Amino acid sequence: MSGLILIQSFDIAFSDIAKLDELLEHAQFHAEKYGDNMLVFLSKHYGEKKDQHNKEHQEEERDHEKLPFQQQCNSASVVAIVLNASLSVLIPPQIPEGWAANFYYQAPSSSLHAQGLFQPPQTS
After folding, report:
1. Which of 34, 52, 116, 124 has the fewest CB atoms nearer than 10 Å to its CB?
2. How far apart are CA 32 and CA 34, in angstroms?
3. Per the domain annotation, does 61 fall within a domain?
């Protein structure tokens, strides 16, 4: 359970896991064509060299779109607290004259209730 919570906190989706083969194929392409190791590859696609790499190699843009972890999640939350300075006077409800109660109480008839199991605590 804690592993699931950890993975969700990294915002890793199942689609990203399914795209890991694309990541490995593109990393192998970079190793063969540019001689990049994995750290340089990750820096070019997810780190500080990403903008420069995208500008220099626009022909690979289609491959870059297939890589995992490309989604960006932005969330904003707004909390509004309103303090009402005016005091409200609570007026009790007025019951009209001639109003009759429309309910009744019937004592429980179960055997457990009669044995005292469902009774409130009593002081001795």
Report:
1. 124
2. 6
3. yes
